[in-house]
Every structure is written in structure tokens, then in C-alpha cells.
Amino acid sequence: MAPKLAVWKFASCDGCQLTLLDCEDELLTLAGEVEIAHFLEASSAVTEGPYDVSLVEGSISTPADAERIKEVRRISRRLVTIGACATAGGIQALRNFADVEEYRSVVYARPEYVATLAESTPISAHVPVDFELRGCPIDRGQLLEVLSAYLAGRRPGIPNHPVCFECKMRGNVCVMVAHGTPCLGPVTHTGCGAICPAYGRGCYGCFGPSARPNTGSLKTWLGDIGLARPEMDRMFATFNVTAFTEVPDDPPA
Amino acid sequence: MTHRHERTLNIGALARVEGEGAMQVRVAGDRVEEILLNIYEPPRFFEAFLRGRAYTEPPDITSRICGICPVAYQMSACRAVESACGVAVDGPLGDLRRLMYCGEWISSHALHIYLLHAPDFLGYPSAVEMARAYRPLVERGLELKKTGNAIIELLGGRAIHPVNVRVGGFHRVPTPRELRGLVPGLRRALEDALATVRWVAGFDFPDLTFDHEFLALTGEEYPLERGTPRTTTGAAFEVADFEDEVAEYQVPHSTALHSRLVHGGRYLTGPLARFALNRDRLSPLAHEAAADAGLGHECRNPFQSIVVRAVEIVHAVEEALRVIASYEPPPPYVPVRARAGRGHGATEAPRGLLYHRYDLDGEGLLTSARIVPPTSQNQAAIEEDLRRLVQDRLDLDDAALTSACERTIRSYDPCISCAAHFLDLKVVRS
Q1: Which H or E run contains B359?
Q2: pLDDT per position as a tens digit, B342-400
Q3: What distance in Å separates residue B297's CA from the closest CA in chain A?
Q4: Are B193 and B310 within 8 A, CB to CB?
């Protein structure tokens, strides 16, 4: 019997699950290898669990979702989180550093109608996760690699070095050295293909921290090319704000 | 003769829509008492955390509201910031923006037509199931979607949350040679788009006519990245007056705010509205395809929106080819210096008018933000259409009625992630 694939959504923009539908050349082949058993964005037919692989998009930000993710874990053999919301809480985790009551009253005239938690947290803060796929959004090639790996019963081959490696391999000129453009490439997890430097802008960290990031050193560099502290803080406070906040400024041991 | 029995129909988690929502219908006897489009997608508070961010950041940040139409968010955000700073980005840079937007229309409309909506007409739960019987058709849809994405990938770096858009223009503009590389795919897409119009025009459409007002941008061209808001009753207003003309209000059953026209009432934005207000500005082949498909001056059956979307793909492909043919690379961006003030931006997302408003302080930091996405504007109209649909079909059993409601909702291509939050359909009959 074909393995059962499920896709789940929590607080998110839908972009990471859309990445699956953006595999235009592979989608129908994939559908021949797995049973797409639960994927509401793509199908109104739902097969009951348990599921062999669950892809989970989005962060936990409401009391109901904090319960729902436990049920998803219970019926999933492998649970893979996809994207910055699921792996780090997403940009909506900016509330973790603010007063959520004040946020609620800014957006909604009747805040009492809206249920929310004070913090937006990654899936791993609630249930055990088998693999985390980074990115805002995730990379199509990396998604196919993770699915192929689980279908073949091996570990996904996803490197965790910084974007700089990919950037050099792509043959880009270093935007920070050559042009003084602030870039988070030295501390950001690889996977996007170093798109931003290829388009002449600095990396803005949408894949979150790489393994052993030396953010302290990078901050010194950013200061040296004239970046003021508030601007530097904003650079790290976007789609992976919680993950970058947890990185100490001391050099990695 | 009264059967004063109560019926409640619940649809939990609507499928083939973007985001999370539900619907509840309450029927007492022979009267629909209440229809609630329950958008329960968790709030993410973009308007709150945008405060204190730099004026250069809204394009990257607001694109994360929606993975299906990130280009729309980037375009409305840029226009709003630029208007606050007194800069207009038109000419060749405006054309490049329109080209990128064409990519998003092609991709998003092909997604909706082939993967989300067509399975309803052919009786399948998904495009993957549909592909078992109609593989070449589904492949044509995927190919169209890919062609749209190829435009966004070239101009934006990637299809979802593109990285190359900045306030003032782009970080880097393509070479003419790079753009010409898109032409063979677009020529094939033009044939495929015309075939799509012929295909969907032959579907069997349920009978439902609504009387909402339409709201869309209008101007010299069929509206994408710019235009002046206008309604079918003739009233036009400046983008800067949007918040005086459109009132947002909150309902208990939705995390998306509803909208109504201050001088009208509920209204609809999106493909049907654009078509009704701009039909004569369609590209030549799109105009002809619309006529051949039997679309009159306007279309007021929500199920037929699939035909209008197909016509808009034809337009977007032709427009893309036109921009590429006359392309000469401009400087990548116009410098935009921050200044204190308020700016407004409105563009036509695939699902309808998307409005952004920002206030900047003298340092170029945002002090407030307002974003009005198309799906939240359409909620009241969708609820009204469901009310009429259910009222006319009370003799149907719960399963048939629920399925009819789901199909109706799907025909609007609601983007619940945009609106704030998705659908659990409930029908309560008493």
C-alpha cells in the first residue's frame, strides 16, 4: 500500500504547503508514489490516519491549536515541520516580545472576539518533531529531498552550513565585502540557493540560524560597515526572530 | 403548513481554499435564519508589529501575509510607501512590476481553475484524482502555473516571497536576453490559456445571480499594479479616500474584518468586478475569448468566475508578451527618501483590490499600518450569496446542501490566510 502523506496548517501564510503544489513537474509522479491522504488545500477527500508522513506548516498561537497539534502527532509516524512559522514561530512571534493585548486592540475593535495566546511558538515546543525543514518559504528541492528520503527509508540529506557556502558555489560577488551591503549570509542556514546576493541584496535570514552561527562576529562587521544598532536589531527580528534571539553573541565553542 | 423543525448544517474545515475556515447555516422551518462564514485562522497581528519597522520593510514583511499572492502584497506595500514619500514609480519600472504581477495572476488563476475549482465541475475531490481520467488537462494547468511562476522567479528570485522587489523598484533588473527567455513558454501559455477559456466555458453552471455592487480599480489599462477605485454605480474615488469610502467592521464569528461601502453596502471585489468595470480594456485576444465564451458586459453568477479567471490569464499572458517585446532595462530603482507622512497603495491581487496605508515618522519608521485584503472585503457578499443559495434549495438534504455551499464558497477563491484566518462549514437546521 502506498505510504500516506498528510499536510497540516497552523498559523501561517500557506506558502510552504503551496510549495508542494509548486512542484509542477513532480506533483503527479509524487501522487503515484504516495497517497495524499489529508491535504485540505488540494483535496476535499480525507482518508483517516494514522499517516506515514505529516508535513506541518505554521506556528502554535491559539489554545485550540495547542491541543490540535498533539492529535496530529498522535496519528503521525513521522512529523516534519515545514517553514519558519513551524520551526521558529514565524514573523507572528514578534508578539512574544510585545504586549499581545495591545496588539489585539490595534487590529480588532472588539478584541474579546479573538482567541490568541501571548506567544507564537514552534511545533517542537509542543510535540516531538522528526525533522525540521527551514525557510520562509521552504525550498522546493529540499522538500522533495525530505519526502524522497522518507519514502526510501533514509535520513534527509539537508546540509546546515551557512548561506555563504552556497553563495560562493554560485559564484556571487560578496555583497558585504564588495559593496558594504549588510548581509546575514554568514550566520543563516543554507537552502535557498543564495538568491538575495545573486540579486544584489544582502541575505535577510529567512532560513534562520545555521549550525554554530557566529552572530557576535557578524554584528561587529555590520557595525563596521555603518549599521546602527536599531537597524541591526531589526535585521535579526523578522521571520525567525525567536531562533536568532536564542543565539548567544559569544563565538561558538 | 409549517414544519417548524430546525436544521443546522456545519461544514468543518472547507477544502480546496487557501487558509482555514468553517461555515454554519441555521435554518428554522422554511427560512434561513443565519449564515456565518466562520474564519478561524489564527490572528497574526501584522498591522500591530509593522509599527516601528523601517519604511523599506513592508514589501518583505507583508508578503508573508499570503503565500499565494505575495507579489500583490509587495506591490501594494511599495505603492503605499512611495506615495508617503512623494515618489511615483511608473514608466519602464512600472511595466516590469506589471510583468511580475502578470506572473502572479497566471500562476494563482491556474492554481484555482485547475487544482481547486475545476474538480467541482467534473465531480472529483482533487486535481490529483481528476488527473487519473484527465491527465493532459491537469498537465496543461500545471504547465500554465509553471509559466506564471517562471516570470516571478526571474523577476523576483523565487515564486513564493520573492526577494527582488524593493521600495522604488527592484534590486536588480533583468537583461533583455533573460526576459526573452520567457517568450517561448508564454507563447505556449497563450494557446493553453485560450484552450482553458473554451474548456471552462462549457461547464454546467448552477443557477445563482447576485446583485452586489462591484468595486475594482480602473484606468487606462486593465488594472493590475495601479488604478483608481470605482464602483458599478459609477462612483470613483481616490485611493487616498479608501478608508472614508469603505468601512471595516468586526463580527464575532470571524478573525477577518468585514467591509462595506459607506455610500452603498456590501460589495464584491475580484475578477468579476474587474471584468464588469474594465471589459473593454482587456487585451485583444482576451476580449475576443470573453465574447466567444458568451460573457456579456458583466457576469453576476459566482460559479462563472472560473471563465473570467481564464480570460484574465489570456490577458496576463498577452500583456506579459507586450511588456517583454518593448523592454529596455531601466535603472533598477528610483531613490526613495523617507519623510513624515501618510501613504496609500491599492493594486489588484488575483482575488481583488488590496489596499495598504502607512504612516511614517520623520525617521522613516512606521507609526501605523492598515491593510484591507480582498477576501475580507468579500465576506459579506459571500454570506449573502449563501443565504440565497440555501433559501432556494431547502428541499435538498443536508449532504447535498452542504456540498452546494462549499462549491459556492470555492467559486470566490477565498484566501483565508489573507483575510486573517479558514473554514469549518456548519449548517444548523431547526
Answers
A1: strand B352-360
A2: 999 999 999 999 999 999 999 999 999 999 999 888 988 988 888 999 999 999 988 88
A3: 33
A4: yes
Alpha carbons B102 and B98: distance in angstroms, whole number: 6
What global pTM score does this model have? Answer: 0.95
> Which residues on B lie below 8 Å from A116 (Cβ)?
42-43
ipTM of this predicted complex? 0.96
Nearest CB among A11, A28, A198 relative to B131 is that of A28
Residues 36-75 of B with CB under 8 A from A: 41-49, 51, 53-54, 57, 60-61, 64-68, 70
**Domains in chain A, CATH or no CATH each:** 4-152 (3.40.50.700), 163-246 (no CATH)
Q: For residue B415, is it left (φ>0), alpha (ψ between -120 and 50) or beta?
A: beta
Q: Return residues 257-276 of B near A (CB < 8 Å).
A: 257
Q: Which residue has the cell 489585539?
A: A104
Q: Mark yes or no for CB contact A95/B61 under 8 Å.
A: no
**Bridge-based pairing state of the strands A4-9 and A51-57:** parallel
The ranges assigned to domains in chain B are: 46-419
B305-325 vs B127-156: helix crossing angle, rounded to 10: 30
Q: Are B65 and A11 in contact (CB under 8 A)?
A: no
By Cβ distance, the residue of A24, A45, A201 closest to B125 is A45
The answer to whether A111 and A101 have CB atoms below 8 angstroms apart is yes
Fold of B46-419: Cytochrome-c3 Hydrogenase; chain B (1.10.645)
Q: Is some CB atom of chain A closer than 8 A to the CB atom of B408?
A: no
**Nine-digit cell at B170?**
527592484
B127 vs A: CB within 8 A: yes
Cα(A99)–Cα(A111) distance, rounded to whole angstroms? 13
Which among A14, A40, A92 has CB closest to B15?
A40
Interface test with B, best of A35, A41, A72, A172 (most B CBs within 10 A): A41
Number of C-beta neighbours around residue A106 at 10 A: 16
Question: In this complex, do B163 and A195 lie within 8 Å of one another by their Cβ atoms?
Answer: yes
CA–CA gap between residue B336 and residue B89 (Å, rounded)? 10
CB contact under 8 A, B66 and A15: yes
Check if A14 contacts B (Cβ < 8 Å): yes
Q: Collapse the DSSP code of A217 into the 3-class scheme (helix H, G, I; strand E, B; otherwise coil) and give the result.
A: helix
- Which residue stretches of B162-212 are H helix? 176-180, 183-201
Per-residue pLDDT of chain A (253 residues; tens, 9 = 90+): 899 999 999 999 999 999 999 999 999 999 999 999 999 888 888 899 899 999 999 999 999 999 999 999 999 999 999 999 999 999 999 999 988 888 877 777 666 666 788 899 999 999 999 999 999 999 999 999 999 999 899 999 999 999 999 999 999 999 999 999 999 999 999 999 999 999 999 999 999 999 999 999 999 999 999 999 999 999 999 999 999 999 988 777 6
Beta carbons of B126 and A107 less than 8 Å apart? no
Q: Which residues of A touch B161 (CB under 8 A)?
A: 15, 136-137, 206
- CB-nearest to B126 from A43, A100, A239 is A43
The secondary structure element, H or E, covering residue A146 is: helix A140-152
CA distance A208 to A220: 19
**Residues B182 and B150: beta-carbon distance below 8 Å:** yes
Minimum Cα–Cα distance from A203: chain B residue: B163
Asked if B181 has any chain A CB less than 8 Å from its own CB, the reply is: no
Listed residue (B297, B299, B319) closest to B308, CA to CA? B299
Inter-chain CB proximity A43 and B257 less than 8 Å: no
